[in-house]
Amino acid sequence: MARAKAPRRKPPQAVSRRLLGFCGLSFAAALYVGIDYLRYLSPTWHDRLQPVLWAALALAAAARAPFYRHWDVELRAVLPFLGSIVFMLSAFLIEMISVRFVSVLMGLQWHGSAAPLPDTGQWLLLALNEKLPGSVVDLLRAHVITLHHYLMLFMMLGFSVLFDCIKAPGLGIATRYMFTMAVGRLLRVATFVGTILPSARPWCAAGRYQIPGHPHPWAQKYYVPYASDSHAIRAVIDTDMAYADVQAYPDEYSPDWGRMSFLVDILRPTPGEGPAWYHLLKKASGGCNDLMYSGHMLVAVLTAMAWTEAYGGWISVAIWFLVLHSAQREVRERHHYTVDCVVAIYVGILLWRMTRFIWSARDASRARRLAKLEEVQSRLIHAAKDADVNEIRDLLKEVELAGHDKPGFSQRAILAFAAATIIFTLTCVVLALTLTSDG
Questions:
Q1: Residue 264 needs a FRET pair 20 to 30 A away by CA distance; which of 88, 254, 257, 401 works?
Q2: 3-class SS of residue 323
Q3: Three-state DSSP class for residue 229
Q4: DSSP structural state of residue 397
Q5: Which of 186, 180, 95, 189 is nearest to 351 (CA)?
Q6: How far apart are CA 214 and CA 353, in angstroms?
């Protein structure tokens, strides 16, 4: 009686390396969030442990990088990666200009007098504060995770490609992340520019901007005369024309910005804000209107989606719980209305699904091998019937080669790229630790 063949076991080194990468990345992510939260519990220990953690992560990446086997794949992903950076930065510039525009459009007096929209999500959280135990409420209020945590968690996920925790190329998932971010930001601009919503924090504009008190000339003509009079609103609907006379308002300040003077009407500068247009954009920050949908939540959702697809496991589930925690805190602290967080969650999920063509955790080489195997299946069967060992060997070699990426770079180019990437990465880490307070 023939003995059954024992299942083929993976080499112990491969198993231990994979297990170490899985446990290490999950542990490093949890440790990063935990140590950073020590800034609220024990600032002294936070100041001691955070540099140690960053140094350990940087040294681990630097030590592993020379042994990384997929530098040629990373090199092929450089141009799409650089293109996504340019696209994302362009989207951020458009967003900053648009944030400033909607902030100054109605004038400072409107910001102070416009009542926040009724938000049942905010009411629900206030009601839960009265019902839940104090410890639970304190946990919901705690700043466990913020925007920079999500960005750094994604950076850790991207660099984990060095340890074979996710599929190469690491620049591929970074390209998808930034491209999706840019598309999401442009959709967000189209949303909040289309309809101006009052902030949940009416005092915000007075504390951040030196904008004119009166509305923009466009709002003076097309909005103000019909803002509160129901008969005027009905009349403008019936005639479909702006008919009311514009009241007398102060003249608009118009500095000379040279080629950028076309931005004067959009940004509405004041003499006290400086002569340069980019100084105004620096102050835009998150804006002082309600900007549907939440940009912070979009970053959080994209990070969670990237972890779920590329890595999975319990740490991805934990990140989704942190996303929900961030959402309720955005509403609780009135940075956004509930609708902004809900829309950001499903828009982020859908956008990440739609950009699978840029990078996917699915093994494309395996799919190519299966397609080639299906193509030569009949020939392989005939060769097996004829006991043609050489033909079988050649066909299997074709299948194996179908899964390989086409070589296109010399070893010298790959080594130069690897060295440049390592130096650039470590430089960014050092600058982040020295020039910022939280990395």
A1: 88
A2: helix
A3: coil
A4: H
A5: 180
A6: 44
Chain-centroid distance of CA 249 in Å reads 42
Q: Which residues pair with 197 in a beta bridge?
A: 290
Token readout for 321 is: 């719980």
Q: Rounded to whole angstroms, how far apart are CA atoms 70 and 85?
A: 22
Cis omega (within 30 of 0) on the bond before 169?
yes
Q: What is the DSSP letter of 409?
A: S
Q: How many CA atoms lie within 13 A of 346 on its CB side?
A: 4
Write out the two tokens for 144: 């466990």
CA nearest to 80, candidates 172, 216, 190: 172
- The reported pTM is 0.84
CA distances from 75 to 25, 407, 426 (A): 24, 11, 18
Assigned token pair, 403: 């899964």
Residue 96 CA neighbour count, 13 Å, CB half: 15
Identify the burial level of 201 via C-beta atoms within 10 angstroms of its C-beta, where 0-12 means exposed, 13-18 middle and 19 or more buried: middle
HSE-up of 210 (CA within 13 Å, CB side)? Answer: 9
Token digits of residue 236: 């403008």
3-state secondary structure of 63: helix
Nearest of 80, 333, 305 to residue 184 by alpha carbon: 305
Place of tokens 């960053």: 54
Any idea what DSSP says for residue 249?
A: -
Which among 99, 113, 97 has a CA at the least distance from the CA of 289?
99
Residue 266 is encoded by which pair of tokens? 């959009």
Give the single-character DSSP code of 243: -
> pLDDT in tens for each of the 439 residues of the chain?
444 444 445 444 444 444 444 457 888 889 999 998 998 889 999 889 988 988 888 888 888 888 888 888 888 888 999 999 999 999 999 999 999 999 989 999 999 888 999 999 999 999 999 999 999 999 999 999 988 899 889 989 998 998 888 888 889 999 999 999 999 999 999 999 999 999 998 888 888 888 888 999 999 999 988 888 888 889 989 989 888 888 888 888 888 888 888 888 888 888 887 778 887 777 666 778 889 889 999 999 999 999 999 988 888 999 999 999 999 999 999 999 999 999 999 999 999 999 998 888 776 566 666 777 777 778 877 777 777 777 777 777 776 665 555 555 666 777 777 777 777 766 766 665 565 544 4
Nearest to 176 by CA among 311, 30, 11, 351: 351
